[in-house]
Every structure is written in C-alpha cells, then in structure tokens.
Amino acid sequence: MRAAVLRATGDTTLDVVDTIELDDLGATDVRVEIKATGVCHSDLHGMDGALPQPAPAVLGHEGAGVVVEVGPAVTSVSVGDHVIVAWTPPCGRCAFCTEHGQPQLCMEIQFQIAVTPRFREHGEAIFGFVGTGTFAEQLILPQEAVVRIEPDIPFDIASLIGCGVTTGVGAALNAAKVRPGARVVVFGCGGVGMSVIAGAQLAGAATIVAVDLNPAKEEAARKFGATHFCGPDDLDELKGELTDGLGFDDAFEAIGLPVTMRAAYDAVRRGGTVVIVGVGRAEQTVSFNAFELFFDEKTIKGSVYGSADVRHEFGRLLRLWKAGRLDLEGLITKRDSLDGINDAISELRAGNALRTVIEF
Ligand code: PAD
Ligand code: ZN
C-alpha cells in the first residue's frame, strides 16, 4: 500500500513508499480507504517535534474516505459508509465526555491509538500521526475515530472538516463565542486562521482584522470575511483606529509562536478574550507580568479541535457549507496526488498555502 512516512523526527521531507501494510482489524476497529486528505501545519509540527510524535510514522490527520471493513463488534458504522476521520475520538464515558461536556479533551482513545502502531513495513512497526495517518491509501481506526457523513458530500470538502475548518470555525463559535457586532483580530491566515475568520463572520463580527506576514494572503482573507488586513507591525495603528485604542473584543492566535501569542494578548481590550489555537513548542514560554493578569481581566484560553464535539460539529459545518454560508472550496489552493506531498509541505512551511488536498 502507498503511504507517506516520516522516517525520523526532524526530517524535512516524507518518504512516499509502496511497502506499507496494515495490522489485522480488532473487534471494534474499522478499515477506511482514504479518498482525500488535507495537509495541515500540525503535520509539519509532527515532523519538527513541536507535537510529540514517535517515528517512523505515516503522517496526515485531516482525511475522509469510505469504510471498507468493520470488526465484529462495530455498531456505529457499516461497510460503504462515507466518513471523516476524527483525530481526537471521544470515548463517550470519561469525565471530559460526560460531566465536563468537553469531549475534545478526551484522551482515553487518543493516547491509546497514538502509542499503538497499526501500520507495518517489512515487519517493522510504523505509527500513525496522532493515532491516525491519512497520508495512506487505507488505515485502521477505532470506530469512535470516524464520523459518518452523507454520501453526496465530496471527499475533498469532507477532508477539510476533519481538522482545519472544525478547529478554526469552532475557535470562533465555541471557544470565544464571538458575539454579533464584535471587533475581532486573527493572527495567521493559513487554513486554520481563514476558518477562524469564516467563523467570526458567521457569528456576526462587525470588524475582523486579519494579520499575516505574507501580504499575498490579503485577497483570500477578505474573501473569507476579513474587513481589514495588515502585517504584525501595523496592527497597533489599526487597533487605535478601529477600537478607539481600547483593543479588540476577541483575538485568535493561529500560528503557534510566543511572539504572536503575546501580541494577541496585547491586542484585546480589558475584559477581552484571547484564544490560542496555534501549536507552540513545549520548551518555549510566553511572559505576562503579575499585575496585568489581574488588572486587565482578560481571558486566555486554549482551543483543541475547535472546542467541539466532533459527533455533531462535522454535520453542523457541512450543513452550513450546503447552505452556502461556509466557503470550503475557497480553502483549497492546490490538488495533488500523494507524490506531491513534499511540495505541499514546502508550500505550507513557506506560509503560501491555505490547503493542498491530496486525492487518492
Ligand atoms: P499555515 O502554515 O497554513 O498558516 C500559518 C500562517 O501564519 C501563514 O499564513 C504564515 O504566513 C503566517 N505567519 C507565520 N509566522 C507569522 C508571524 N510571525 N506573524 C504573522 N503571521 C505569521 O498553518 P495552519 O493554518 O495549517 O495551522 C495554524 C496553526 O494551527 C498551526 O500551529 C497548527 O499546528 C495549529 C492547529 N491547531 C489545532 C488545534 O486543535 N488547536 C488543530 C489544527 C492546527
Ligand atoms: Zn490539523
């Protein structure tokens, strides 16, 4: 089977090979044939070690496909079902899934699948990225890690829901709960940041400032709903003009750098909300002085997978797409086969892409 493999943490390219096999299916597992997968910056974080990922590993986590085999105890899907891969599968039983209502924080299945290799190459174990591994023709997942969708949804559209769109739109709707009329700033205009912009627009934000180092991102940012665009150095001036110097109601960091996390904190008004979506490195820190934390009464919150319950959120986002309220086609900047995976990674690293979709 064909797949793209990270041989060792720190490698800057993936190895596309035809020599990957799958383990046998467990009783509650499903085998999925991947039809489309997006390339997300988190895959690059798996390569550079910001996200701890044992290697060798088949990367990819933003995918959609068809169930081709189910274990004897599988109850939630059947052979032939179209599904989106969920990289944090809710177990449905732990405290996060039940009493806290935060299934995106469930680690019961996530931890298990992340440390259990389901791919093989010449008998050697190969992990799957965060327990998935959608840069492969097929993969094995627990039944909780697939969410059934209507068969008329195109796989390219479905794949994007599997990570970037759910993460970004959910950060606006579920984590910040952006209010109609709000003034919002979004740092980073990749696939995730553009989805935050789209989510803020859906929520009725009046002002949406997109911030990116790459000026070529302006056109797309405005298409997704940004009312203003600037580089990081010009934000202070714009903040003065747009908020009477008070600051934005909500700021989103969709890059993963301490400097932009701190800038997001500084960009919001007293009492405002800062949502950290970008994945930073564990050895890096962000500083706050001991006075401002109390005095400015700002809320800083992380957001994992759009702070959403994938079992409902994927369907909600697809309804919005079908209704013409959420542009997903516009996120696809390139389509390619698995052979183009290293080009897609280079484009993302250079900050040029929204999403490359790999089609099988
Ligand atoms: P991307 O690489 O497509 O976009 C990042 C954007 O940031 C690019 O447009 C860059 O030009 C821009 N950028 C880089 N540095 C700066 C800077 N200093 N100032 C301003 N702009 C800058 O990435 P993506 O959209 O695929 O992912 C964004 C982050 O979100 C990344 O860290 C990824 O790992 C994270 C993520 N988080 C979750 C989650 O659950 N929280 C899920 C998926 C992705
Ligand atoms: Zn992702």
Give a summary of the structure in a few sentences.
The chain is an alpha/beta fold and 360 residues long.
Describe the protein's architecture and organization:
A hairpin with an 8-residue loop joins β1 (3-6) and β2. The model has no long low-confidence stretch (mean pLDDT 97). The protein has two domains: 3-162 and 327-359, Quinone Oxidoreductase, Chain A, domain 1, CATH 3.90.180.10; 168-303, Rossmann fold. It is an alpha/beta fold and 360 residues long. It is 28% helix and 26% strand. It is built from eleven helices and 19 strands. It starts with a strand and ends with a strand. Residues 40-42, 45, 163-164, 167, 187-193, 211-214, 217, 232, 254-257, 260, 277-279, 303-305, 348, 351, 353 line the site of 5-beta-D-ribofuranosylpicolinamide adenine-dinucleotide. 5-beta-D-ribofuranosylpicolinamide adenine-dinucleotide is lined by residues 40-42, 45, 163-164, 167, 187-193, 211-214, 217, 232, 254-257, 260, 277-279, 303-305, 348, 351, 353.
